Amino acid sequence: MNYQSLTPELIEQFRGICGADALMNADDPKAARYGRDQVSEKAYHHPPDLVVFPTTKEQVSQILELADRARIPVTPRGAGSGLSGGAVPACGGIVLSLERMNKILEIDPESLCAVVQPGVVTAALDRELEPYGLFFAGYPISEDFCHIGGNIAENAGGGRAVKYGVTGNYVTGLEIVIPGGEVLRLGGKRYKDVTGYDLISLIVGSEGTLAVVTEITLRLSPRPRHRRSLLTGFGRESEAIDTVSAIFRDTGIVPTSIEFMDAFCFTETAKSLRFDLPSEGSAAYMLYEVDGADPNDTERGIEKINDAVRGSSPMFSELLSDSRSEEVWKLRKRIPWMLKRITPHQSAEDISVPIGAIPGFVRRLRSIESDLGIHIPVFGHAGDGNLHAHPMAVGDEAEDRWAEIRKPVLTTLYEEALRLGGTISGEHGIGNKRREFMPLVSSPTELGLLKGIKGVFDPNAILNPAKIF
Amino acid sequence: MNYQSLTPELIEQFRGICGADALMNADDPKAARYGRDQVSEKAYHHPPDLVVFPTTKEQVSQILELADRARIPVTPRGAGSGLSGGAVPACGGIVLSLERMNKILEIDPESLCAVVQPGVVTAALDRELEPYGLFFAGYPISEDFCHIGGNIAENAGGGRAVKYGVTGNYVTGLEIVIPGGEVLRLGGKRYKDVTGYDLISLIVGSEGTLAVVTEITLRLSPRPRHRRSLLTGFGRESEAIDTVSAIFRDTGIVPTSIEFMDAFCFTETAKSLRFDLPSEGSAAYMLYEVDGADPNDTERGIEKINDAVRGSSPMFSELLSDSRSEEVWKLRKRIPWMLKRITPHQSAEDISVPIGAIPGFVRRLRSIESDLGIHIPVFGHAGDGNLHAHPMAVGDEAEDRWAEIRKPVLTTLYEEALRLGGTISGEHGIGNKRREFMPLVSSPTELGLLKGIKGVFDPNAILNPAKIF
Q1: Average pLDDT, chain B
Q2: Which residues does chain B have within 8 Å of residue A355's beta carbon, measured at their own beta carbons?
Q3: Are residues B424 and A293, on separate chains, in Cβ contact within 8 Å?
Q4: Do A251 and B222 touch (CB under 8 A)?
Q5: Residue A249: is its pLDDT beyond 90?
Q6: Which end of chain B is more exposed for a tag (fewer CB within 10 A), N or C?
Q7: In what order do the strands lie in the sheet with B23-25?
Q8: Alpha-carbon distance A454 to A448, whole Å?
């Protein structure tokens, strides 16, 4: 596309819209952090020419109107906690940070809804909801820092998606601004709505390429009052993974979480946190959780799961106390950070496969690992087939080695996922990081439809360019 | 649009694609039924020029390729059980009936998925799933005759949507044919997928205006092994409706169903079925249901609901035996048919409002009823705010009276729904019946986006024209 550069005159106009306090120039030392997200690889970083911090939808509208007219790329951004380079201004231009639009506008216990601005931290909403006995069930595992707007952009899943599904299942209303500056309100507090095409689901997961979300209405659920979890270790990874279908087949229970952790991820993170957790030399660990309204239900539920798991001859199985469960979840949440500290020469993947294909996929991962002589720690949401594999290069020549193997390793992983009926991303999105691989997943006709839809919303392609396709 | 008429030469070509047995001409006595759905009003019927019954995606592809080239409208059709005129060939042309594509292609208990053709009757899939201990949770209340393809077209909800949500929540894969004849496969058996825009959710609920669905992959859930229900009668409608928020607030339980029936709907249907059911002169009846994996859970659940309901001083409250529950559900399912028999001069509405707005909406319905001197029986899915109001004209001059009041009554109902944060359809769709009212709901900009998307899929507008907009 034919983008224009930001001139001092244009910057002046953006200052006029937002105010001087809501502008950050490219030479500001803090600007660099708006040029990256949680992707380690430098190839997917790009500095912004200007960062703006609007506080109202009117400002967002004026920013998009001016940027569209002047052909300046605009990259919307939440917490910057993404894992696909989605919030990085890959073509330069403006980063539109929504971090100051961080108000919880309304909690409506009668209609079981919350209305929030995009910059609200997911866990902050949760704290506000607790006294009402309600919760937002679609939250991802990065709840402590991710923004709800970012969850919308990526259709984030998480550790409880087995039972509760993903972000999009709970979005009943959106206020959006499209390039050109028009503000639209889609849906609302109603749960069911079949008037016209489902534009809300189209915006959810569109990675900020179609519109900027300025307000979100979320469906709330009764907060589970009780929760029980079980930590189990297995002698083989396949035994751990096989418990997933055993649980669905034998118990009639839909657990809240079924998390897989390989021996490396579990023991290294436990070490780094100085947790004294059982391991007994297991090759894989599983964390199962059930929740519900009644302690008898959850107790019976976790016991049934424990029974189903026994068929896989676990090396140990521990029903966790509340405090112990908190410790194990802390460990689980810590894994990506432990891995990140090892080397920047790695890729945090989130391949999604059918549940029945998980055992085959894990086996293939291990054979790819040994064929290519590469380390691939694996953990993640086994219960819904969404596993986090982190292929990485370590040692003296890690950088060169990674440059050499990155593309073949990812291509092999992705092709394997596709062969098993899976796809290349279950919750992190495409961004600029997986963009080159989209033709593996989508036919030219499908890509044509995606681009056609993009053109309907954003004919001048100013919104988050060089993402997805 | 500039549509062409079907010539004998074109009919010959369609015969060549499908075979002579798979064609029905306009003069066939059975063709009339392909010119209407379950909408009573004749204004929304329109005869087809030709009905085709393809059995393979290749035939569907060739039909769409030829029709697109020749500019012949094509209206896809399932069971014809819709309530918005969606499957009616409003501009003439071809009805593409999917009733012969009625195979269950695969049940995959490992990946908890079923792969089906669009013409499968919803209850037929359920019978096949029973031995596996699985079920498709998104089914609507018309399961005994509706087709899964039709459920997809309308994003059908139903009597269990409070807990399980609607059809779209369970669609993980689609095979579609777009005008021009290209076949695309979207998604698959994986549960999580954020690669590119969510085309599946865009097709679901698009009323056959974007593509013809030729194969569907559905996510399955553990079949609830136990179920308990409660029938309660109240002296006032408001008392009945108030129990919805009491249950969500006080019990922490998400019931499977919360169905409302006004006195007229309940007692007249009970009479027509010769059921001996309690009534004690109640003004409104509620049917609550919980389900689960364990009989103790469901027992405790329904007792908690019974406790919560007591705050509204019910006139009676009966925990139903299994056979009794079946009877009450039969009654509930029968209500629309009982109403339909009264007069063709009525409209089956399915307004959706926020849960907190249900009491206000029912009150307004009653004041509209008395202001306009019109009868509006009401029943439906109170638990998710989706109520079926059937305004009707009866008596000697019903036809003229209906012609006169139809539009003002619907406009008043819709405006009231919108004022309360609701919308004009929660599960029946827009079709040709509510099309004139779309500008009430959608701004010109939003309608422009919808039409833009339509143009991306169907540039010659041959698919199901004169629907939605």
Answers
A1: 95
A2: 110-112, 191
A3: no
A4: yes
A5: no
A6: N
A7: B23-25, B50-52, B94-97, B74-77
A8: 10
